[in-house]
Amino acid sequence: MKLDKTDRAILMKIQSDGRATNASLADAVGLSETPCARRLKRLESEGFIEGYQAVLSRSALQIGVVAFANVRFGVHDRKLSDQFEREVQGIPRIVSCHNISGTADYLLQVVAKDLEDYGAFIRDVLRALPGVTSVESVLSLREVKRYGGLPLL
Question: What's the superkingdom here (predicted)?
Fold first, then answer.
């Protein structure tokens, strides 16, 4: 399915405000409510919209550390990688995980209350995951740009 200008406008609007009413969405993209609702349903059913979620405040939740962990494996075995990926899915403080190229095998974004909490997580959880032989952490000092949605290329 090819996206037209109106489809793109709808996607951009709901990325910035997932709770926008159909009326405000229709107004923002220059449609009446019924055609706008139909387009939104079509975009959902065709998989352009995977879901809706709230953006939570790290400070209100007392999450003081955002870290990026480069994880390396000693042995590159498909079963071990699959097991690692399954286990990562069940660890809430790992907010993203990417299988990457380069000197590391995976890049994880991890959140913690403080450095002590992060250190315990690395020691007790991350290093205990299947296949992990080393972890190198990079700590975020300040977030300059937060995820604000995908660009429509």
Answer: Bacteria
